[in-house]
Amino acid sequence: MSLLDASTTAAALPYPRLVQAVEALLRDDDVQVPARLVHPLPSGGSLFVMPATDTRLAVVKLITFVPDNPSHGRPAIHGDVIVFDARSGLRRCVLDGPTVTARRTAAVTVAAARRLAACPAGPLLIVGAGVQGRAHLEAFVTALGVQQVSIASRNTQSAAALAAHAAALGARARVVDEPNAALADHPLVVSCTTAHGVVLDASPRRDAFVAAIGAFTPQMIEWAPAVVRAIAADGTIVVDTRDADHEAGDLLQAGVDVAAWPTLGDVIRDTPLWRQQQGKRPVFFKSCGWAGWDLAAARCAVPPLAHAADGRSG
């Protein structure tokens, strides 16, 4: 059994391969994902218990999310992803939970952008320069080849650090002061703040692909309800999974009938629900998280051939 730290977990989850694993998982009828348990903590945070299985692996992610931790110099997310052999029940490895969460979330966004974005090469606007901002920067640069990035954050030091990281990856990067004004120049937009109030209240471009990552509970919101309603009327909304029906704060607070819109799985499988929405722009992709994405990460970290050999050896 292997215990992988943050850097080793990241090395086991290269973005191009992780994007492929996400898409493959959505085509796999053997994947089972029970409802996740979210238990409140006295600090105002939450404990998440998220299981998922297929015919080969069983995973459970145990993480805590405490939104005000960054103000005290601590990461907002702590925890682990435990990976088991689905047949023998043996524990195969333990992955670093925050690293898995960051990388699989960004990989899901890239999988959506590959199918839905009119201009997948960018330029890209990232709103929020935290962990998810960094993960999405790396994923879009390494898996989609984006070369021009703008970064907006209320924390100017974090924005400057992320711009420097983009330059180290070979992309041209700049910091922008006002994200609403920058929307007009960017066909790719990722909002990944932890805000509980509106951050973006301007309309994206007609050809925009917007990935709204930050508001993953009904109480959270990044995009103004009027903007979301306008996209619903004139464009396309896609959610990561049906869990978004009761979790997607941006959509719920806008009064959108979330269940009427397709999931990323519908897009990958080309279902009738998705086909009736094709051709409408802009696209608003709402991601709330799902244990299936953690299972996709586990598939990357525990390759089938190595797994089979381990199983034969007992």
Automatic annotation (TrEMBL):
Gene3D superfamilies assigned to the protein according to its UniProt record, in alphabetical order: NAD(P)-binding Rossmann-like Domain (3.40.50.720), ornithine cyclodeaminase, domain 1 (3.30.1780.10)
Entry keyword annotation includes Oxidoreductase: yes
GO MF terms, alphabetically ordered: oxidoreductase activity
EC nos: 1.5.1.49
InterPro entries: NAD(P)-bd_dom_sf, ODC_Mu_crystall, ODC_N
Entry keywords, A to Z: Oxidoreductase
NCBIfam families: PRK07340.1 (NF005603)
PANTHER family (UniProt xref): KETIMINE REDUCTASE MU-CRYSTALLIN (PTHR13812)
Identification of the protein by name: Delta(1)-pyrroline-2-carboxylate reductase 1
Organism per entry: Tepidimonas charontis
Gene that this polypeptide is encoded by: ocd
